[in-house]
Amino acid sequence: MKKSLIGLLAILLVALLSACSDAEGSSDGKKEIVFNTMELSPTFDDYINGMIESFEEENPDVKVVWEDVPASNIEQKTLTEASSGNMSDVVNLNPRFTKRLAGEGALLNMDESAADFKDRYPEGLWASGMVDGTSYAVPWYFTTGGVIYNPEILAEAGFDAPPETIDEAWEMSEKIYEETGTYAGGYTTTSWQDLWVLFPTYGIDLVNEDGTEAAFNTPEALELLKDRKEYYDKGLIPDDLLLDSSLASEWYADGRLAWWVSGPQLYRQIEDLNPEMYEKSKAAPFFVSDEDIVYSAIQNLVVSKNSDHPEAATAFVKHITNVENQLEFTELAAILPTNEEAASNDKFLEGEDSEDPQERGNYYSATNIDKAVDMAPPISNANEINNILSEIYEEVLLNDLDPEQALNDAEEQVNELLSE
C-alpha cells in the first residue's frame, strides 16, 4: 500500500510539474513559441538560428523552437494541428493556404496585432493575407516575375528590344515564330495556364467584393480567352509547355524559346543548363497590362489564433521582417524583402547597369515593389478557383470548348463552390 501511495504521489507530482511547465510555456519558465518554416534547413541554419538568438537576447523571457517542415507536408501538418487547436505559433505559408486557414478561423488578425508595424509593407503585399477585408498574415519575402531573353533570336526576327506589355509580347511572338520557328508568348507567370493571374492583371476580379459569387465572366475576359485560343491555333502555344510549364527553362536554354517569363531568382538555372546561352542573355522588366501591376510569389508569416503567447509570436514576426534580417536573407537567397525600407537599399540598385541577367532582373523586381500584387482572390477557396480556371483553359485550347461556354461553366462551378 505504501509503495502504491508513493507511486501515486510521484505521478501526481509529474503531472503538476507538467501543468506548470505548460502554463509557463517551457520547463525553464520562459514563454515558448514554435516557428515552422518550409525547407530552409540546412541551407539557412546559420541565418535562422542567428535570428532566433538575437530575438531571444532582446526578449529573455521567450524561447523560440524552430521546426523546419518539407513543403509537401506543411499544409497538411498545419491544417491538422489547426483543427485540433494545437497549431504552431508562427508558420511560414503561401497566400492561398493562408486564406484557407483564415477562413477556418485559425489565424490571428494581423491588422490588429501588427498595427504598430504594418506600415512597413506595401499595400499590395500586405493584402496577400487578406480575407473578407481583414489581413491574417505578414509578408516575409517575395519574388516578382521578369523576362530573360535571347537578343540574337529577337534580332533575327527584326526586333532590337523585348516587349513591354502583354499585348506587344503576343504580337512579337507571332512574328518571331514565323521568322525563326521559335516560341515566346505573353505570359503573366511561370505557369502557361495563367488565367487566374491573367484576369486580375487586366483588372478583372475573380470574385465579387464580398466573395460570394464569381466576377470573371465579363466581355473583357471572353476577349482574352478568345485571343489565347487564336494564339494556340496559330501554333504559338506548344502543347508540351501548356501541360508542363516546368520545361520552359530547358526550352529556353536549348534556344527553343525567345524569352522565358520567370522570377530572376531562377535565371541561374539557364547558366547551369547552358552557360553560353546565359552569357548572351539579357534581362527585361515583367510584361504589364494597362493596370500596371505584376504578379508576385509571396511567402507569408502567420500567427495561430490559439497561440498561448500571441504577443511574443507577433513580436518574433516583427523581428524576422525588420530591415537588418531582411537584408541578410537577401544576401543568402535570390529573394526580395517585403520591408519597403529594406527594398530601397542601394544593393538592389546596383544591378541597374549590370550585364548579368539575374543581377539586372533583381533590380527590375526591387524597383517594382509598389506594383507587386498577390493575384489570388481574398477568400479561403482561392486554390479551388485557380484550379477551375486552369481546367477550362485546357478545355478551350486542347478540346475546342467554346470560350463563352467555358466561362459560363467556370462561373457556375465557382458559384457552387462559394455557396458551400
Overall 3D form:
globular
Whole-number mean pLDDT: 90
Largest sheet: 7 strands, mixed
Number of strands: 12
- Give the number of helices: 20
- The low-confidence parts are 1-24
Rg calc:
24 Å
As a percent range, the share of helical residues equals: 40-55%
Report on the structure:
The protein has 420 residues and is α/β, with parallel strands linked by helices. The protein has 20 helices and twelve strands. The chain has helices at residues 2-24, 45-58, 71-83, 95-103, 110-113, 123-126, 151-156, 166-180, 195-201, 219-233, 239-243, 248-253, 268-273, 275-280, 310-320, 323-332, 340-343, 357-367, 382-399, 403-419, and strands at residues 31-38, 62-69, 90-93, 130-131, 134-135, 138-144, 146-149, 259-262, 282-284, 294-303, 336-337, 372-373. Strands 1, 2, 3, 6, 10, 11 and 12 form a seven-stranded mixed sheet that branches. A three-stranded antiparallel sheet has the order 8-7-9. A two-stranded antiparallel ribbon has the order 4-5. α19 (382-399) packs antiparallel against α20. It is globular, with a radius of gyration of 24 Å. The relative contact order is 0.16.
